[in-house]
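W.,

You were right to be curious about this one. When I first looked at the sequence I had no strong expectations either way, so I just let the prediction run and decided to look at it fresh. Below is the sequence, 357 residues in total, followed by the output.
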Amino acid sequence: MRYIVFAILILIGKSIYAQGDSYKLNIGLQPGYGFAWAHDKQVSAIENTSASSLTFEINKLHLGPLAELWHKNGYYNGFQFAYFHFSNSIIGQALSASYFIEPILLKNKQFTLSARGCLGLMYASHPFDSVGNPLNRNYSLYINPYLALSLIANYHFYDRYSLKAAVNYNHISNGNIQDPNYGLNFPTINLGIEKNISQKSHKTKAIDTTKCWRFDIVGFASNKSSTLSLNDRFWVYGFDINASRKINFKHALTGGIEYMSDESVGFLYQCESRKGLSIYRVGTTIGHEFLFGPRFIFSQQLGLYVFNQTPYVSWVYHRWGLQYKLNHHLMLGANLLADMQKANFLDIRMTFSFYKN
């Protein structure tokens, strides 16, 4: 899940497009090949596993003065659908559907080089089963969040046609909702063709550049399993108070304090006969927000616990979140808390906000 900082950007394409002033609509098809990476000794059963794929996408190339405010060379966004076949029956086959944003890094008349971040869902056919598939330690659910990073070269060679090559790093994980969950990582390369099917221009809209403070009161909850009891479920819940200072139309800085209660920790204490330890934690955070259009906020926070009696987590942690503004005062979102490189829990949260200039 550590690549979420890039891949989660894909959810904001619609709000950006609403402010763009022109675009080209393209479709593409790319076969691919790669391998499943056995990144931990717990997933050594998938060593030497190859992966073949077929990807279909529909994207928009955004151009013009307003698009260049978001990125100087313009950007793509759109939908990507892919089929993956793995040579090892332990992890089986998979289908993914995702949304992406793709800023252009370099360009000339015929060539572009761009970086893509994808976020979506993947259906994978052979999750862990203690009887039927005990060697799959990579994933335990049929449907998991899907993340991908890509470096893409696009060469325009004839009329509306382009040749497209991509290097991709793909990842699925359930955010520690269900164990085992070591994640499935599979680099691939694609080579295919793309066709421009239409072009359109539309009016631009003004961007809100007002600097202000936003104060948030947040309630959140999660439900997770435990490594010592895969069949039991445990609640994590809490609240936090945050302050956000908007510094321009794309960025804000944040700080806050949060409280959480983790019932799965209490279960581990009981199993290990630990007494006198609290399941509660209190942390402080600082961070940054990307502001995408009027609705989406993508946040990254670094946290330090000021009260933590839990021996299973580090004192330093990080959070990654996406929130959608329902109206001026309410936001709905999801947030991942991780200790170093291990996901701790994925929560759903509701936020009440008020503002001050």
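Here's what jumped out at me. Confidence is low (pLDDT under 50) at residues 1-20. And, maybe more interesting for your project: Residues 213-356 form a domain with the Porin fold (CATH 2.40.160.20).

Coffee later to discuss?

I.
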